[in-house]
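In this supplementary section we document a worked example of the pipeline. Step one takes a protein sequence of length 222 as its only input; no multiple sequence alignment statistics are reported here. Step two produces a three-dimensional model, which step three serialises into C-alpha cells for compact storage. The input and output of this example are shown verbatim.
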Amino acid sequence: MAINLTVNKRAEGVKAKSLRLDGYLPAVVYGPKQAAISLSVESRAFRKALNEAGESTIIKLKGLDKEVEVLIQAVDFDAVKGSVNHADFYAVDQDRELTTGVALEFTGEAPVEKTGATVNKILHEVNVTCRPDALPNHLTISLDGLVDEESQIKISDLTIPEGVKIENDPADIVVSVTPPREEEPEIVPETEAGEEGEEGEGKEEGEEGASDDTEPTDAKPE
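The serialised model returned by step three reads:
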C-alpha cells in the first residue's frame, strides 16, 4: 500500500531555517534514474507519512513534474527538540530489485511465559530483496509456538510473501527463550543473643585467668 505525500521544489537561496519557521522541512529526492531535486515538505505531513510508512513502504511524491515513487532513505532529527531537520527520499526503479530493511511485528502470546521464562526478541528488522511492488510493510511473527525452554524462532522459520528474499543468515535467531531464574537459598544470620552469649563467656574466662595468675603478697610488719 503506497502513501501519498505532497512536496514542492525548493527554490534556490531559500534558507532551511526559514522553511522550518514556516512549518516546512528541507528534503531531497534522488535515485538510479532520478536526478537529485531539492524539496520542501510540510513537517506535519511528513511526520504522519513517516509514522505510517516507516522506511519500507512506498511513498508517492506528488507536486513535481510527475509522480515519483520513493522510500524514506534517511531522516535527520534534532537531538534536543526531537523535530525533523532534513529528509532523504530514494526514488525506486520499478524495473529493478531493491534491498532494504523491513520491520518485524510480533503477535500472539508465548505459552512458555506462564512458567516464568523470558521471551527474548533478538531481531526487530530483517533485510529483504524484492521488486518495489512486492515490498512488504512488515513481516508478522507469531509467538504462539514458543511452548518450552528449547523453543526458538530462526530466520528460516519466517513466512515471507512471494517474490521476497530475506538476506539474513537462515540460522540467525529471531526469538529465543531464557529459563526462569532459580531462587537462591536464603542465608539466615546468627541471632544476636547467641553472639552476646559467646562474648560473655569469653569475658568470664579472661577474668578467671587473670585472678589465677595473681600471686598474694605478704604484709610487712611495721
